[in-house]
Amino acid sequence: MNLTVNGQSHVIDVDPTTPLLYVLSDDLGLRGPKFGCGLGQCGSCTVMIKGRAVRSCVTPIGTLADSEVTTLEGLGTVEKPHPIQRAFIEEQAVQCGFCLSGVILTAKAFLDQNPSADEESIRRAMSGVLCRCAAHVRILRAITRYAREHA
Amino acid sequence: MSGGVASFDFTSDARAAFDRAGLSRRAFLKGSGALIVGFRLAFVDDLGLAPGSVTAQRLDGAGSSQLDSWIAVAADGRVTAFTGKCELGHGLSTAQAQLVAEELSVSFDRVTLLQCDTALTPDQGTTSGAQSHPTNFNHGNLAQAAATAREALVRRASERLGVPPDQLVASQGAVSLKVDPSTRVGYGELLGGRSFAMNVDPNARRKPPHEWTVLGAAVPRLEIPSMVTGHFEYVHNVRLPGMLHGAVVRPRAVGATLLGVDESSVQRLPGFIKVVVRQNFVGIVAEKPWQAYQAAGALRVSWSDGTLLPGHRDFHETLRRQQPSRDTVLVNSEDVDQTMAHAARVLRATYRYPYQMHASIGSSCAVADVQADGATIWSATQAVYPLRSTAAMLLGLRPESIRVIFKMGSGCYGCNGADTVSYDAMLLSQAVGRPVRVQLTRKDEMAWENYGFPFVIEERAALDATGTIVAWDHESWSATRGGRPGPSNPGNVITGLLAGYQPFGVPRGPAPRPTSFGNTSNTVPSYVTGCVGDRCGGTGTIASQRVLTHAVESAFWTGPLRSPERLQNTFAHESFIDEVAAAVGADSVAYRLRHLKDARLAEVVESAAQAAGWDSRPSPRAGLTGTGLAKGRGMACVLYEGDNGYCALVAEVEVNRDTGAVRVTRVVIAIDCGPVSNPDGLKNQLEGGALQGMSRALLEEVAWDDHNVTTVDWRTYRTLYLGADVPAIKTVLINRLDVPATGAGEAAVTVTVAAIANAIFDAVGARVRQVPFTPERVKQALADRPA
After folding, report:
1. What parts of chain A have a pLDDT lower than 50?
2. What is the pLDDT of residues B92-110, one digit of tens each?
3. Chain B interface includes A98 (CB < 8 A)
4. Which of A31, A86, A96, A106 is most worth mutating to test chain B (most B CB atoms within 10 A of its CB)?
5. Considering only the top CATH level, what class is A83-149?
6. Which residues from chain A sit within 8 angstroms of residue B9, using beta carbons?
7. What is the H or E stretch that residue B637 is in?
8. Which residues make beta-bridge pairs with B772?
9. CA-nearest residue of chain B to A35?
10. How many CA atoms lie within 13 A of A123 on its CB side?
11. Are B387 and A60 in contact (CB under 8 A)?
């Protein structure tokens, strides 16, 4: 099957029940989406498909023929980060950083749909995302900063 | 930011070096000897260092008295520093690079820090216990090495220029004449990529903090740009040519032993390579990770029934009765019973703390390449050298033939699954002779990790007629099993036990009399004098004191979880001082200060209270009657580990008297950890510590049934999601420049739990003495209030 990831087209030949995460990390060698729980509970594996934040650890690849997938790498680069990534750098809103696919892509997908969302609704939108280092204060500050400046 | 740790990619650099050297992939895979040499060359090459300038002193590991073990200067002036204290997500690599830049007077972006690699960095034991700052930022180790290097470069310049050293100044990677800055010679030119070939000078002069320009500044963390853009290489991302993937099959119940494995149940599965059995250890190797997990799930394994676990509901009563125990007396003035007998009043309270988890967001992962004559292990362990030592035991190899390379995992907060999964990977790799990567499933992580210790703590205080405490009696019971493997106990974690090693046992017997004062676990409350023999090491004024602990065998694995024992003990001490203050109608801040003699501890208490706008009055607040929301505030303080950082925290809460729900609305933290290396990094640690403490105070508890842990995912083990209503956090950094640096990363979490308990009491007059403070427990405490 064909799969477009971060603008690049790939031909994928794996068991269709394989979750997308494994294709991204093991067949395509991407580092952004991460295995945290394999249960869709923490958000570490999040990618964007059709503008929505999707948990790739519980999404079988067989359901995604001809889809376009964006991972954390697809937003921006170290040299030219996406504005939401820049907001996280500016706020130093990271400890171990393992949660960032869930944090950044969930926030971006939500703000793309709700550009004028207030802080309370942003927080609600993030309610299924985990940051175990508890960098909550900075993370919410980075997201609202991005929302204020760019969304 | 360039040139830092983040941009330095171990594996691809090594591969590139092999390509440049014309070595084949076969050579890469064939022998770890070649592998290690290859890695070493890659570093030397990429950092502009001449062969031999870096590696000779490090071949045998430590060599920490030798300057070249810590610092290397390339011909182009770039500086490489080697540290045995690793980045765990707490900003330590950036702070260490700042330290080196400062002491060496070289610009920050010319410094590369290499961390925790048994082939390259000095043996600094374990990155734990809030010890990295005390170890590397005071007068010794990395700081002293950098200072030595600066003085050595100045001496070389003195010889080169024919000018006495005191007329020279080191700045921006060069030594110049004080009177004529244009006469200068660069470090690269002075050393020319050669080694220093000298010892670290214990008398080399460290720069005083008031001269600092880089250290002490809020330098942004090096790793963050690559993390937020998804390029950072965690241990989970390490990929080697020819690498296979493993999964483990843990016992069906605690204590179950292996009866048999039916390999035919998985032999036809796609990608299946091998079933590996070693005593009670069972694992699968497959071509791909998804295939490995599928095969692990499908493998038919028979196990014995295992042990019957103690009941979860009345666990703390079981813990308190359990025998035998290892008893310890930390202080005993031997007059406590008499003082209690003659006191105007005696108060007592019992506090209960559950098992809690590290529960790292990324399940633990490691990659091992074990060959007949050596091994390389990529691990998020906090202890590369000790892991090398226990790996040698498990693999039957010489420690010198094993290289352990630290790669960051997700936040660990102590001894999570990083060591055990390293054992998993190496056992599987040894069985197939190829590199194997293992990432645990969520359940395997949570069911078998080394939990934070459960406790029952009894506190008793005798008061005189004025309401002053005249005696403090503390007795506690905790359960323990295993812990960090250290250099010789692989059985301290689950994989080591399954492979045939026993955990370090709980030595039994009555407590000997203490011979010196130590308070590394904060078992001794802050309010006693801590007198043992001639020395009084405590921070308080209460002279009549006894602290007795009992450790018993745990049914579950335990190990250091951020602020191990310190948090549990501080929860009890700081709740109890609050209870006593309330009982005598005293303001709890004033009452603390009345029993403290340590000026720095008193100062953090006063600073936090002042910054919080603390209104001096007894708890609980007036006007307790009614329903619905009630607000309160509480304080707690600690001198972490008895000598490793002062912290006080005020929590403000809102308690819903109808539902028992607790919302923390504001947190104010004051800290004194000596000279601050990076104020923003420190704030980040304090904020995260406070919120992790809030998660542990309100939500977290390991539960089990007759045979198994039942909290095995994020639905059953509750923690603080991003949607939680988090408090505003204010931090007060007391930047004390004339004292040694202490730890700081475990300070805030230590005091948060008690501060919240005290705030709940202030709000509603109900005392919660069992963690976590669930709505049910708060409602019960409300119902238990004296009429």
Report:
1. none
2. 999 999 999 999 999 999 9
3. yes
4. A96
5. mainly alpha
6. none
7. strand B629-639
8. none
9. B362
10. 14
11. no
Q: Say if CB B246 and CB B283 are below 8 A apart.
A: yes
Query: Residue type at B43?
Result: F
Torsion of CA A125, A129, A133, A139, to 10 degrees: -30
Whether residue A44 and residue B726 make contact (CB cut-off 8 A), yes or no, is no
Cα dihedral B49, B51, B54, B60, rounded to 10, equals 160
The residue written with tokens 């036990």 in the block is B497
Name which residue leads in pLDDT, B424 or B10: B424
Q: How many angstroms separate the CA of residue B566 from the nearest CA in chain A? A: 19
**What pTM was estimated for this model as a whole?**
0.94
Please say whether the beta carbons of B636 and B570 come within 8 A.
yes
What is d(CA B578, CA B583) in angstroms, rounded to the nearest whole number?
A: 9
Question: How many Å apart are CA A95 and CA B688, to the nearest integer?
Answer: 8
For residues A103 and B722, what is the distance between their CA atoms, to the nearest angstrom? 9
Return phi, psi of residue B244, to 5°: -105, 175
- pLDDT per residue over B320-367, tens digit each? 999 989 999 999 999 999 999 999 999 999 999 999 999 999 999 999
Task: Find, in chain B, the residue whose alpha carbon is nearest to that of A23.
Answer: B290
Give the residue-averaged pLDDT of B582-593: 98
Give B620's DSSP letter: S
What is the C-alpha separation between B186 and B173, in angstroms, rounded? 6
Mutate to test the interface with A, among B11, B219, B224, B228 (most CBs of A within 10 A): B228
CATH for B10-232 is 3.30.365.10
Reading the block at residue B208, the tokens are: 């005083």
Domain with CATH 3.30.365.10 in chain B: 10-232, 581-787
Report whether pLDDT(B238) > 60. yes
The minimal CB distance from A131 to the residues B88, B690, B722 is found for B722
What is the number of other CB atoms lying within 10 angstroms of the CB of residue A53?
A: 22
Which residues, other chains included, contact B736 with Cβ-Cβ below 8 Å and sequence gap of 6+? B600, B672, B674, B675
Question: What pLDDT is stored for residue B49 in this prediction?
Answer: 58
The CA distance from A92 to the nearest CA of chain B, in Å, is 7
Name the fold adopted by B581-787.
Aldehyde Oxidoreductase; domain 4 (3.30.365)
Q: How far is B368 from chain A (nearest CA, A)?
A: 17
From chain A residues 22-61, the ones with a CB under 8 A of any chain B CB are 22, 25-26, 29-39, 41-42, 44
Of the candidates B233, B413, B442, which has its C-beta nearest A31's C-beta? Answer: B233
Q: Are B361 and A130 an interchain contact pair (Cβ–Cβ within 8 Å)?
A: yes
**Domain map (residue ranges) of chain A:** 2-74, 83-149
Strand order across the beta sheet in which B184-186 lies:
B168-171, B174-177, B184-186
Closest residue in A to B438 (Cα–Cα): A35
Interface of A with B in 118-137 (CB under 8 A): 123-137
* Burial label, B102 (beta-carbon count in 10 A; 0-12, 13-18, 19+): buried
Which of A72, A86, A132 to mutate against chain B (most B CBs within 10 Å)? A132
Asked whether the beta carbons of residue B361 and residue A100 sit closer than 8 angstroms, the reply is: no
| Region B664-687 average pLDDT | 98
Complex prediction ipTM: 0.99
Cβ-Cβ pairs closer than 8 A, A with B, add up to: 192
Helix (H, G, I), strand (E, B) or coil at B444: helix
Q: Which of B361, B716, B725, B746 to mutate to test the interface with A (most CBs of A within 10 A)?
A: B361
Going across the sheet that includes B111-115, the strands are B71-73, B79-83, B111-115
CA A56 to chain centre: 9
Q: Which amino acid is at A77?
A: T
Pairing of strands B111-115, B79-83: parallel
Torsion, CA B63, CA B68, CA B69, CA B71, rounded to 10: 150
Q: What is the CATH number of domain A2-74?
A: 3.10.20.30
